[in-house]
Amino acid sequence: SYLIEEMMEALETNFELTESELHLYSRQILLDSWDIEAQEKLKLANVLIVGCGGIGCATAELLARAGVGQISLIDADTIEVSNLQRQIGFTGLDVGFYKSEILAKRLRLINPHIQIEFYTEKLSQNNAKHLIASQDLVLDGCDNFETRYLVNQVCKSEHVTLISASAIGFQGQLFMVEGDSACYECLFPKEQHANESLRCADSGVLATTPNVMASLQAHHALLYLGLNLTPLKQKLLLWDGLSMKQRLLAYETDRDCPICQARQSANAD
Fold first, then answer.
1. Angle at 247 between CA 194 and CA 242, to 5 degrees
2. Which residue out of 52, 200, 257, 260 is catalytically annotated?
3. 238 near 247, Cβ under 8 Å?
């Protein structure tokens, strides 16, 4: 019993914010709607960021600065010169290196109080369940439909909350999949939205667009992790960078969605 008490005390100590952490996060803790308890929830959170490009770079840095305790990064791409226009985690000296590895090094310098893991591989059917199942939240910022559908499928089956952001040209989208809510495939049926040509490399993107969407994604992640708020549950946020207009569209579960049907069947079993 003495050993158990010691272990419990050690766990409680790890959960508590240190003096240096309290100083680092002091401006957040001063907020009326945010307190030490919310900050401690961030410290205990595990987040996986899928894609370390324009969205992933900024989202990861904002969450690291805010105090999310464990951040995992996955991206198989290496840094190219054309990435530097919008991917704020990198410089010219990083060209040729893995995005996830360089971003992990940057985050460790920014906040030594948190844990960073990185994977220089593509999210696939072979590793997705292993990487996602232990997370409190998955943030998708990848640039291809195949990975988006896979992330949605595994998050839904493993009961892990997903906040997905995308950016192209002057426009961006953001939505959340949580609990029994409608999922990505409800909103965008796979057979109708599998055009892989809709990527920054083919269609172009303004430097600010992915960073705006990353800020919105990180903001929602903090609301969810610290305060358990879900303002985008079953809502699609549309942002237009030319008109500076933002809209929220409600949507419902598609009764024919194979992902939601699979989850319902699993719950019934």
1. 80
2. 200
3. yes
Q: pLDDT tens, 55-73? A: 999 999 999 999 999 999 9
- Gap between the Cα atoms of 49 and 71, Å rounded: 7
**What's the helix, strand, coil split of the chain in %, to 5?**
45, 20, 35
Pick the closest to residue 47 from 29, 35, 59 (CA basis).
59
Helix (H, G, I), strand (E, B) or coil at 122: coil
Q: What are phi and psi of 243, to 5 degrees?
A: -95, -10
- Tell me the two tokens of residue 148: 């988006």
Distance of CA 215 to the CA centre of its chain: 11
Known catalytic membership, residue 257 = no
Cα angle: 89, vertex 92, 95; to 5 degrees: 85
CA distance 183 to 166: 15
SS3 category, 25: coil
For residue 10, the model assigns a pLDDT of 45
* Exposure string over 225-246, b if 16+ CB within 10 A, otherwise e: bbeeebebbbbbbebebeeeee
pLDDT in tens, 73-86: 999 999 999 999 99
Q: Determine the Cα–Cα distance for residues 2 and 152; give it in Å rounded to an integer.
A: 45
CA distance 12 to 58: 31
Task: Give the three-state DSSP class for 13.
Answer: helix
| Strand 115-119 to 46-50 pairing | unpaired
**Of 213, 210, 60, which Cα lies nearest the Cα of 137?**
60
